[in-house]
Design a protein that fits this description.
By secondary structure, the protein is α+β, with helices and mostly antiparallel strands. It contains six helices and seven strands; from the N terminus they run αβαββαβαααβββ. About 35% of the residues lie in helices and about 25% in strands. α1 (about 1-15) packs antiparallel against α5 and α2 (about 40-55) runs antiparallel to α3.
């Protein structure tokens, strides 16, 4: 309930800069990009994920840094909360998910990350809060972003609200969800 109150404050503020902004209805943190699985790959893919993720323990992460994102082809802009703690554990999970994707010749989440001596930054793990059509990042960055971060920093109990315990990893394939509990 308190998280939805914080979300409403953030979206309301951001709409003064971009009126077409829509709040997300479901929240997640991605460990892979969307890929197309052939029907006969689903069961072996899920089995492989289950095996790779079985050794992982539960952990906490904190998503408290407001950031503006655009999708790869710049057709959507998002406001998200970037992870500021728990990044290492998420990188380890992505590494295992990437190995499963490679087994099926599917694109990995952040392929450039694996190149030796790469100067590219680590992925920005985040939870999307709101979105709009087009690349409107220029209108949301700067003053708007500072105002949004102030709302998060001043929100009562935000430190507790934005601390997320990872108890399971989920995989969605079509209309099916698969859950992999962490130890």
């Amino acid at each position: 309930e308190e998280f939805l109150e914080l979300l409403e404050l953030l979206v309301s503020c951001a709409r003064t800069y971009v009126s077409s902004l829509a709040a997300m209805e479901e929240f997640h943190l991605s460990l892979s990009q969307c890929v197309v699985l052939r029907y006969h790959w689903i069961d072996p893919f899920v089995r492989s994920l289950k095996e790779r993720l079985a050794a992982f323990h539960r952990f906490f992460c904190v998503a408290d840094q407001v950031k503006v994102y655009t999708n790869q082809n710049k057709t959507r802009t998002f406001i998200g909360l970037e992870v500021s703690a728990g990044h290492f554990q998420l990188l380890e999970l992505v590494s295992e998910v990437d190995r499963v994707l490679e087994e099926f010749d599917l694109p990995t989440f952040y392929k450039a990350r694996r190149l030796p001596l790469t100067s590219l930054p680590d992925p920005s793990f985040h939870i999307s809060l709101a979105w709009c059509v087009g690349d409107l990042s220029g209108r949301l960055e700067g003053q708007c972003l500072r105002e949004l971060q102030d709302i998060v920093d001043r929100f009562e109990d935000s430190a507790l609200l934005l601390r997320v315990q990872w108890e399971e990893i989920r995989c969605k394939s079509g209309n099916k969800y698969f859950s992999f509990p962490l130890r």
